[in-house]
Design a protein that fits this description.
The protein is α+β, with helices and mostly antiparallel strands and 232 residues long. 46% of the residues lie in helices and 17% in strands. It contains nine helices and eight strands.
């Protein structure tokens, strides 16, 4: 999984900073130098990320607020696209020019201070895939460090190049990881409500499966996938 493999890499690093960068990214220009300069001049910032962009040059959301129940709802019941791009869905405005504080970056690009890793610990290897960076950032924030996004440090992110190859399995892993994250950091009321939103959404997806006219094997795979999520 991502967390265990990344920890192996971090254990072999010796610098003051560690730069976690996914293989489906392309660093543009002097983005790493901009991140380093910002961290060097802001000693209470524990992690920084750049502005992710799509291969066509459009801006991509790569900085997020910590999960909320609206985000759980929008996952299964998408409404107006403006709501999906709003703070209700954990998004920050894309058109920003100055560095701004965030809750957590997408795990595709994270520059973290070694001192933070030594104090907070590395990624939790109980997460196989997904949410490990959110858990890490919650711990970093609780320890008093800031986390920032730098719009002028740009990185192309192709996105999902590995996980889309096994989409049904990754859908289950996503919900396993969310369950673990919420058990670690969220209230019983939040977990109770989230579970009910997921159950409603998955049952709706099961009911609509027949109308999608998928090949029999693919339909069976997705039916088993949805049932596995309901069983979590």
């Amino acid at each position: 999984g991502f967390a265990a493999a990344t920890n192996q890499g971090m254990a072999r690093c010796s610098g003051r900073y560690l730069f976690l960068l996914n293989p489906d990214t392309e660093v543009l220009g002097d983005a790493p130098a901009r991140l380093l300069a910002f961290m060097d001049t802001h000693p209470r910032v524990g992690m920084a990320t750049g502005q992710l962009i799509n291969p066509d040059g459009t801006l991509q959301h790569g900085a997020f607020m910590f999960p909320n129940l609206w985000m759980s709802f929008f996952d299964f019941f998408p409404l107006n696209h403006r709501l999906a791009d709003s703070s209700l869905n954990g998004r920050y405005p894309l058109e920003q020019t100055a560095p701004f504080e965030i809750d957590h970056p997408l795990g595709a690009s994270m520059l973290v201070r070694r001192e933070v890793v030594e104090r907070v610990g590395s990624l939790d290897e109980a997460f196989f895939m997904y949410c490990e960076e959110i858990d890490w950032c919650i711990r970093i924030k609780k320890s008093g460090w800031g986390i920032y996004c730098l719009p002028n440090a740009r990185i192309i992110h192709h996105g999902g190049q590995s996980t889309r190859q096994t989409a049904p399995a990754m859908f289950v892993e996503l919900h396993k990881s969310r369950s673990l994250l919420f058990r670690k950091h969220y209230s019983p009321f939040f977990r109770w409500t989230h579970r009910r939103i997921v159950r409603l959404g998955v049952r709706r997806a099961l009911a609509r499966l027949e109308s999608r006219r998928l090949p029999p094997d693919e339909a069976r795979t997705w039916r088993e996938t949805y049932e596995a999520v309901l069983a979590l």
